Amino acid sequence: MSSARPGTAGATRPCPHCKATILESASVCPACRGHLRYDEASLQREKTRISPLRIEGTLAPPAGEKVYEYSMVLSLRNERGEEINRQIIGVGALHPDELRVFTLQVEMTEATDTKVRRRH
């Protein structure tokens, strides 16, 4: 969970469906896509959703008969380069005739009813 107080921008809570940590303000869980609320304010907030980053790639083992293992790691850093979160997203093995396609997408929505707080 985040260090932000409930009701402030960045505050988190567990999804009641899949238990993933999500933003308190979310109306749809980004992990399981379960709907969490249907009020007018949340519907308006969804209209501000943008995706400033989307990357898609393919993992394929080098040519040959060997099996390769993989670990997909996501690291999040702040403006000073300090790692603030690191997670293993998935692990597995790739045989010579297999591949994996991955997509990384960042979604942002405008925070409402919050004051801008500068961190120093």
Could you characterize what this model shows?
The chain has one helix and six strands; from the N terminus they run ββαββββ. The radius of gyration is 18 Å and the shape is elongated. The protein has two domains: about 1-45, no CATH class; about 50-110, no CATH class. The strands form three sheets. Strands 1-2 form a two-stranded antiparallel sheet. It has a two-stranded antiparallel ribbon with strand order 3-6. The two termini are about 20 Å apart. The protein is mainly β and about 120 residues long. It has one helix at about 40-45; strands at about 10-15, 20-25, 50-60, 70-75, 85-95, 100-110. β4 (about 70-75) and β5 (about 85-95) form a beta hairpin.
Question: What is the number of independent domains?
Answer: 2
Give the H and E element order: EEHEEEE
What's the shape? elongated
As a percent range, the share of strand residues is 35-45%
Q: What's the total count of β strands?
A: 6
